[in-house]
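Whether sequence alone determines local backbone shape is best considered at the level of individual chains. In the encoding step, the backbone of a single protein was reduced to a row of integers, each denoting a local shape. For completeness, the protein is quoted in full, as a sequence line and a line of structure tokens.
***
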Amino acid sequence: MTETKPNVSEQPQRAVGGTLIVTVVALALLTFLGILSETSLNIAYSALMEEFSISAAIVQWLTTGYLLLLAVAIPSSPFLVRRFPTKALFAVAVIVFSAGTLLGAMAINFPMLLAARLVMALGTGISLPLLTTIILDKAPFAQRGMMLGLVSLVTCAAPAIGPVFGGVVMEYLNWHWIFIIMLPFLAISFSLGITTVPDIRKGERGTISIPSLLLAAIGLSGIIVAVSFFSEWNGDWRVWATLAVAIIALAVFARMQLHMERPLVEVRTFTHPGFTLGILIILMSSGSVLGVNFLLPILLQRGYGETSMASALVLLPGAVAGAIGAPLIGSLLKKHYPPKFIICGFVALAVVNVALMMAGSIWAVAAFYLLFMGGASFVLVPDQTHTLNQLPMRLNADGSAVLNTVQQLAGAIGTAVASTLITEFAAQATSDGINGNAAYLQAFARSMAVFVGLAVVGLIVALIMARSAIAMWNCARSTRERAHGWGKRNMTPRRILEIVPTKHCPSSIKGITLGVRQHNIFVLRSSCGSY
């Protein structure tokens, strides 16, 4: 019997439809507003502390609590996507987020404001993974990088633009307007998406596993709480006990998912080594971006004595670079192999982080931050694309949920680590007789040394990823004559997709190849289509 193969030459010719673009814009706008609200309030912390008579440890929960609930909400997204129509999920996300925004605009005390932030997190927790899942299901394979570039634009540009937006609002209005200004954009998002969002899943019977959801909540929240309170608890037994409980909860959660017919999250995504390596890179890169974005306003305001408005303007060029770089790099991925972008990006981040440590003026900070956000675009977009491409289509929703959960977890950890570092180092500088602005300048430089190390570790992981991919390429090249005529084609690392039985590959590379799936390995997915 002759096996029929799809015509792979047809797929690269398909273009992204206008309806899909409108859908992505609608969801991207909603998600952008969610992340923007998260970071724009940072610039208003001093005003909130004074107005509500609360400490920095309390006001910090506007960010930590938001990220915490977001990290807990996202793992349930695969179940929601499989169970409910995506158009209905989109409508619920907009309504819930709008309700939280209205509550924040009318808040008269801190508990009311915190409740508003938590409600908004629920809306973002639906929209963020839904955006990625729709792209993976509807975008042509060759256009995934460009479309996922929009997702990275949201996750990369919003944290950078947030302080700028918050600074302008606080300079001329008050913090209530951070929420009020978002309302018209929510209406635009709803009007664009309600008629264009496709129903990509048929309804499936089943119920969500409450024990699984609780275990995920305990595990993820435990990690964030332990990191957030590390400084306040002085690193004592409470930190390690909380971490131990979190790790045990996540281990039990993973074991439970493996034995469920319909798991909350398909943890078997981590059996794909390429996906696992990509998640590690996302953990380090996203944590670095949000950590540095937390440190820079402190450097500018307490180290250089600038106002919130001036600090916002210093960060503006970097915000623009992040916004432009994400889709631009994404559009190049259909012709270039993602790991080489990731390697270049980590090299740039390591060098720029060292430069930021030695920056002697706000102009130097502005220039180096622009380069920092450009380097981050080289890592975030290609890694998201490459990571999700390692999974079969049936795991798209699960992979998207894992990726977005890790991004939020990384952001919370990065922010908490940055906060702990600069607080501790500033206290040490003061105890050494260094006071005022000089204490924060020294604390910032010492804090950035940690992020330099993180960039170096990320570079090592990226090199391992590239090495594994090269091993697969050599395997495919040596056995291409077996792959139904592929040996007659002009195959290059940029233009090939093959599925080669692992029995034809050297046993020495079976353990390190990316995309291993039982009897097959996926080799360098790109614009050639799919068997």
Notes: Residues 1-14, 480-531 have pLDDT under 50 and may be disordered. The chain is about 70% helix and 0% strand. Strands lie at 498-501, 516-517, 520-523. The radius of gyration is 23 Å.
